[in-house]
Amino acid sequence: MTTELTDLARHVAEGLARNPKALSSMYFYDDAGSRLFQQIMALPEYYPTRAEFAIFRTHGAAIGAALGGTAGEPFTLVELGAGDGAKTKLLLRELLAANSDFTYAPVDISAGAMSGLVATLAAELPALRVVPVVESYADALDQLRTQPGRKAVLFLGSNIGNFGPAERLDFLRQLATPLGADDRLLIGFDLRKDPRRIRAAYDDAQGITAAFNLNLLTRLNRELGADFDLARWQHYTDYEPLTGAVRSFLVSTEAQNIHFEALETTVHFAAWEVIHTENSYKFTRPQIEALAAEAGLRVVDFFTDGAGDFADVVLAAR
Question: Looking at the domain 47-191+283-317, which fold is it?
Answer without folding.
Answer: Rossmann fold (3.40.50)
